Amino acid sequence: MNYNLTTKFDEINERTRRPPKNIEELTETKKYLTEIPGTIEKLKQDISNCMDIYSILDDFNYEFSGSDQEQKWYLFGAPQQIVSVVEQQSQILEKQKETFVKQMEEE
C-alpha cells in the first residue's frame, strides 16, 4: 500500500516539475497544478489507512527496517512536500509564461 501511494506521489512530483516546452504545455501544466489539491485529498484517506496499519504493527512491537521507517515518514510528509513543489512551480511557470508571451510578440 505504501509503495503504491509513494509511486503516485512520485508521479505527481515528476509531472509537476516537468518544464513546459511551449505555451500550450504551460497551460496544461497550470491546469494540472490546480487539480493536485483534489488528488491529494483523495489520497489522504489511503495514507491514513496506511498509517493505521503502521500503528497496529507498532502496537505489536514489530521491528521495522530502516528503509521501512523512511518510507513510512516519506509517505506521511508527501502531501505537504507536493504542496510546496506546486507553490514553487507556480512561480516558475509565471516567469516562463512571460518569456513565452514575449517570444510570441516578437514573432
Task: Outline the structure in words.
The N and C termini lie far apart (50 Å). This protein is mainly α and 107 residues long. The longest helix is centred in the last third of the chain and has 41 residues. The protein has one domain. Helix 1 runs antiparallel to helix 2, helix 1 runs parallel beside helix 3 and helix 2 runs antiparallel to helix 3.
β content, as a range? Answer: under 5%
Distance separating the two termini: 50 Å
Chain oligomer state: single chain
Please describe the biggest sheet, giving its number of strands, its sense, and whether it closes into a barrel.
none
Please write the string of helix (H) and strand (E) elements: HHH
DSSP helical segment count: 3
Helix and strand layout, with pairings?
Layout: H1 2-17, H2 23-59, H3 66-106
Name its key features.
107 residues; mainly alpha; 3 helices
In summary, what is this structure?
With 107 residues, the protein is mainly alpha-helical. Helix content is 88%, strand content 0%.
